[in-house]
Amino acid sequence: MRITTSMGYSALNNNLDRLQEKNYFNNLRKITGKDIQSIADSPTRLIDIKNIVAQKNMKESYRNIINYSISEMNAAEDQVASISESMRQIRDLSINSTNVAYDGNVATLGTYIKGILNDLVRNSNADFNGKYLFSGTSTTPDNIKASFPDMNNMPYEIVEGNSTDENPSGLKVVFKGNMDNRVINKDAHSQEIININPNSLFGEGGVKYFQPIIEMYNVLQFNSDGSKRETLDSLSNEDKSKINEFQKQIANNLEVVNKNTALFAAKRNRMDSVGTQMSEEIVRLEEVKSLKEDADMPRILTELAKEENALQYSLSTGSKIQKYSLFDFI
Amino acid sequence: MSTFSTLEIGKRAMQANNFGLDVTSNNILNSSTEGYSRRQAIQSEASPFNKYGFFVGLGVDSESLRSFRQEYLDREVCKANSKLAGYEVDVLFYNSVETIMREPTDNNLGEVVNKLLYSFNELALQPESMGLRANILSASQTFVERLNSTSNDLLAMRKQANTDLVNGVDEANKLIDTIAEYNKAIAISKDISGNDALTYIDKREVAVEALSKLGNVTVTKEDNGIANVFINGINVVTGPSKNKLSIKENINDATGESTLDVVTYDEKKNLTITVNPTAGKFASSLKQYNVSLNPQNSSDGFSIMQTLDKYTVTFADKVNSLLAKGYGVNDLTGAAPGRVLFTAKSGNITAGSIEVSDSIKTAADLPLSDKANSPGNAAIGLEIARILQDGSFLQGQTPVEFYSNFIGRISQNANEALNAKKSSQLVVEQLNSTRSSTMGVNMNEEAISLIKFQKNLEAASKIIATNNQVLATIINLGK
Hints:
- The structure holds 2 protein chains of 2 kinds.
- By secondary structure, chain A is mainly alpha-helical.
- Chain A is 62% helix and 6% strand.
- Chain A contains 7 helices and 6 strands; from the N terminus they run αααββββββαααα.
- Chain A has helices at 5-32, 43-97, 106-124, 198-202, 210-221, 237-293, 297-323, and strands at 127-128, 131-132, 156-160, 171-175, 183-185, 191-193.
- In chain A, a hairpin with a 5-residue loop joins strand 5 (183-185) and strand 6 (191-193).
- Chain A is rod-shaped, with a radius of gyration of 39 Å.
- The model of chain A has no long low-confidence stretch (mean pLDDT 89).
- Chain B has helices spanning 5-29, 71-101, 109-123, 130-193, 198-214, 280-292, 304-323, 379-385, 399-439, 443-477, and strands at residues 39-45, 48-51, 54-57, 60-67, 217-221, 227-231, 234-238, 241-242, 244-251, 258-265, 271-274, 342-344, 354-356.
- In chain B, a hairpin with a 6-residue loop joins strand 9 and strand 10 (258-265).
- Chains A and B meet through helix 1, helix 2 and strand 5 of A and helix 2, helix 3, helix 8, helix 9 and helix 10 of B.
């Protein structure tokens, strides 16, 4: 084949261009650690990577939401345990009060029960990160709608109204939140309720379970004629019968509270499992993403070394070849 | 035959070898000239004369000047150049698109959309949080700004494609003028000398090759050396006359769609015909302008702008239709206020015109609750977040799938352009190498030719010198 002057220069030029281009992209891969430097490199892998990244980010977002929700549910569970304990204490006290061997001050018992009632209401107003735990979706003070001007902006409040025959103390627990569920998107296809509904915690209207406690207090604190009990006053059989009835109601309510709490704890555990599973999936997705996206460093470094050698030899050989022709010898 | 016949033989030999030296020197000095085809001085024995009953030649004559240019190779090089030039433009185009779309980085438009939807999800934990609501507004602003800048950049590319076409047409017209001028010169030279003016032919071929990079060129040659040039089968040069190119814009009255055509005008400025080359820079630039970057593309081709606009409109409509049913923090009674998050600066929503609606003035106005007077309710927000998994978002795909496939399609086209460019480059190199092998200058060959002609010249001068002595002897015979 006839070799001309321009063929030599063209071949050298094209060869150098190709080597330098390969060198450049391999250096980029080395610096960035990514195998794909351009959308033209590998369309199939690019789509796979995008889908994996989207999946991973989505799972991370859901996992963060689940973790936060679990923290909130843990706080709620702690408060419900305290509420349950308070109700148990009230039940136990009421049983004691009807015991024939009991020689304590009945009125004092009533005062004690009122104190526990205050604790109960205080626990009901517990918050997590500034949000009330047991008020439906009215979780901030701004959204608590007070019925009367002198009410506070907490969801549960003991108010003292006018004394009546049925309610000599006039005490009433008022609920100012709502019965709505707080819902989150737990994953791509399902939602979860993350609060304990006031209905399931305190009965209908969020206040039903407080009623027997108040009524028990009324019996312990007031005589049947509505006058306050004196220190040495004792309970009549009728009073004891009422207290037994209230104690049974409190016991039943306590059972319901404990059952709902157990269901809530089970839900929390389930969400914990979901969160753990998501964490594992995220790790797996990271691995798959790395396999598809990251540069194979040993291969890149080997190729770089090869290209450096090829470039050097091309430059030195090419320049030597172009040097000589017959004109140098005539 | 006379006493001076030997002198005549010597003179012819000197002329012929001088000519050979000229041709060889020209070859050596033009060895690196673009488009130069080496020449060879062809010598032949001069016509014989009768001397003493024998026919003796009158020395050597320069019979012709041979060119090694091959039409077939020129044609194939033109074809390959067209394809390569077109693919080079395509590769540059996709490099630019890749930069504008911020691919393949993690900061691409798809991730911006995903982050916006995640922010609705996160809000469900604390719907009354003004910080999280403000986060949604901020993510929405980022979303519209990204869409606006992407759209504007793509439209700027479209404008550039227009500019490239205009510049390309100017360049093409200059080349057409050049080819026509050379045709004229070649015809005149042929008339005068009866031979082809190889220099003009070489220069004309350089112009034709340059033109082939702009569009797919075919050439027919006539016996007098004139070349008729066609672009996509449409005649642009016939001998010395030419049909210049121009750009014609077509506006669709109904849709306002603007497309461009490359057309030819004859010398009287009458529109003759649409050229629209199918290869070369023109073809690629036309495709960019008329299809890929055309927001109102009505052809079957894949339009990046149109797809981006479709994605934008669908997303905005889905979000707006949900928000229109929602209530904000301070919406205490009555029907849903009908606030939306996205509107258009003017006209319909597109990637370029979308903006955050001013009906949502503060974070509290975001209508994320599905009932009045219930700011802790984020039902609408949760539904918006679930758009991410909506399999009927667009063309039976979720937003993530649609965006991945959109980028995948661009990526596929870019990959094809790159592979085509690489293989075209190899073809062009191979053809140039083959052509160079045939018509290129080999210094060693020319050095030998130089030596050959130089020695012949020396020999011819010896013949003249010897004959000079013979003549002197004859003249001095009578003294």
